[in-house]
Specification:
The chain is of the alpha/beta class. It contains 7 helices and 10 strands.
Length: 237
């Protein structure tokens, strides 16, 4: 994996007459990077830019040295949206076998990712009959097929019980330790401590970038939520 998985320069996205992202510059490397901020701040839009499905008004987004969305990146980038991206009328295993054929990976990959997201007991259940959290894990399993070099996860732990949230964060770190660059968005500040690097976002801008310890130290507080509030006050002063 290259040092910087993602390089963004001067990124601008406009919706209607309102800029959603305005002249954004950021690089994303290895480890688990958390993209945190309130709902509506532009996190999902930024992630859509990384996978090449968002219309941009200006700037560049490159992933492993190629324009985001390039055909050659199809098997290098895994993407999980907030809404489950699997077929409700197929079983978990049927979904994964379908996407495995699209990606050109074998059946052992299907078994591996089902185990990784703890869905072995539901592999033969129709997705439409699963809980919201289980459907989200099925989508995550699809994104893990083929072991992508970049994993883009938009609010992957929403609606999950605390035990499963801990298990998924452990999985994200195992993937990062194996060389995958992991970008996780969340609006839950207590998840920030689980990241190796934080990008705090507000109104389409990155207002802080560093490790959780660095951001807390800079703000002079003991938790990331208080740091975020302090940085916002400083930003608007």
């Amino acid at each position: 994996m290259v040092k910087n998985a993602v390089e963004i320069r001067g990124l601008r996205v406009v919706r209607g007459d309102r800029p959603v992202l305005d002249q954004l510059d950021v690089t994303i490397g290895g480890g688990v990077t958390g993209l945190l901020g309130p709902s509506g701040c532009g996190k999902s839009t930024l992630m859509r830019c990384l996978v090449g499905v968002q219309r941009v008004a200006g700037g560049t987004v490159s992933v492993f040295g190629r324009p985001a969305g390039s055909r050659g990146l199809r098997d290098k980038v895994g993407y999980v949206t907030q809404a489950a991206s699997v077929y409700d009328d197929l079983t978990v295993a049927e979904n994964l076998h379908f996407f495995a054929r699209v990606l050109g990976v074998g059946s052992p990959e299907v078994d591996r990712v089902i185990e990784e997201v703890d869905l072995a007991g539901q592999r033969d259940r129709v997705v439409g009959r699963l809980s919201g959290g289980q459907r989200g894990r099925a989508s995550l399993a699809v994104a893990l097929l083929g072991t992508p070099d970049l994993l883009v996860l938009d609010e992957p732990t929403v609606g999950l019980d605390p035990v499963l949230r801990v298990e998924l964060w452990a999985l994200f770190h195992r993937l990062a330790d194996a060389g995958t660059a992991v970008l996780v968005s969340s609006h839950v500040m207590d998840e920030a401590e689980r990241c190796s690097r934080l990008l705090l976002m507000r109104e389409g801008r990155i207002i802080a970038d560093g490790t959780p310890a660095e951001i807390k130290e800079k703000a002079g507080v003991d938790d990331v939520e208080s740091a975020f509030l302090a940085i916002v006050r400083e930003d608007t002063a």
